[in-house]
Design a protein that fits this description.
This protein is of the alpha/beta class. The chain contains eleven helices and 13 strands.
């Protein structure tokens, strides 16, 4: 069989300046296709790309002069089209895969909102057979964030875990992975998503719209059966400040969400939460905030969880390539995929 010959150009969503996607992204129908892969890189024909709310922050704040003309987004699913000479044979042409581009590649403009992308072979895994391409595209970054939350909180069998944003893209994976580890999960989301979160395995669901102020409700409901960990996928400072009412003294509060006040407010809250002494009003609970850089080992672990029927991806909507600007990335508890 003759080797695949890439076309000279492709469709790609690209930006040439910083700003919100609707204002700076445009569909280029003649964007150059990446050069054939060398070493351990592969050329992937993208089937689906996942849209991540973090891209809003990256595109708005990261200086355009450092990245030039750039294609956004990290996550994808697709097929290997060409493989460099050092790529393992199980990633031959035609192999269905999923994964993420490296953060360095994203900074250089090599994202996944395009027909083709170059990716190091160590950052991908073979697509689970029980998962569609659309589902696989939404698995990696959010799934790896969920795995890291488990490790930071040291979740183990028998733990009681509270998940804020339990119906969101990351939250749905946090719920499932915590349950796979043997934890008992209570989820916080809107009432309209409560049944979906229960179907994922949560033993209870708290409707944050119905129970306000939320911290006071959680304290009244769970003070006698406090949690070992609170996993906040949304970034709610008030939830941490009220956490002594429902989080064990030796428990952990793990946050991955950016606060609504923007980057400066987020940085201020992080500094206050980890540095302010209790005698000056600090919260007497362990606080951890982090971001995730995808890696290949966790990509493979996520694939195994899917194959073992312990993890599924909840998809909000699937859009055509030309309709990307119709997508609304919402910083709330709605699932995204």
């Amino acid at each position: 069989m003759s080797a695949f010959i890439p076309p000279p150009t492709m469709q790609a969503w690209a930006s040439r300046s910083s700003g919100i996607p609707r204002e700076v992204l445009s569909l280029d129908n003649a964007f150059p296709v990446p050069l054939p892969p060398a070493g351990s890189n592969i050329l992937v024909r993208i089937s689906h790309a996942s849209l991540n709310p973090g891209s809003l922050v990256f595109m708005s704040l990261f200086p355009s002069f450092l990245r030039g003309t750039s294609i956004p987004e990290l996550d994808f699913s697709g097929q290997v089209q060409l493989a460099g000479p050092a790529v393992p044979t199980f990633l031959a042409s035609g192999t269905p895969i999923f994964g993420s581009v490296s953060f360095d590649a994203l900074i250089r403009g090599g994202g996944t909102l395009a027909e083709y992308v170059i990716v190091p072979a160590e950052l991908v895994a073979v697509k689970p057979t029980r998962m569609s391409y659309a589902e696989a595209a939404g698995l990696n970054s959010m799934g790896q964030t969920a795995l890291k939350m488990m490790r930071k909180a040291e979740i183990k069998a028998g733990d009681r875990v509270l998940v804020n944003g339990a119906s969101g893209g990351t939250g749905t994976m946090v719920v499932q992975i915590a349950i796979a580890l043997g934890a008992e999960v209570v989820g916080i989301c809107s009432g309209s998503n409560a049944e979906m979160v229960k179907d994922l395995g949560a033993v209870e669901v708290v409707d944050y719209r119905e129970h306000q102020p939320l911290g006071a409700y959680l304290g009244s409901e769970y003070s006698n059966r406090p949690f070992d960990a609170v996993l906040d996928t949304m970034g709610v400072q008030a939830l941490f400040e009220s956490s002594p009412k429902f989080l064990k003294p030796d428990g952990s509060f793990i946050n991955i969400g950016a606060y609504e006040g923007g980057p400066l407010f987020t940085a201020w809250c992080w500094l206050k939460n980890i540095c302010l002494p209790i005698t000056l009003g600090g919260i007497p609970r362990r606080y951890i905030m982090f971001s995730t850089i995808p890696n290949g080992e966790d990509t493979k672990q996520l694939a195994k969880l899917v194959e073992d029927d312990k993890l599924n991806v909840v998809i909000d909507s699937v859009y055509k390539m030309e309709d990307v600007l119709d997508v609304r990335l919402r910083p709330n508890d709605e699932p995204q995929g």
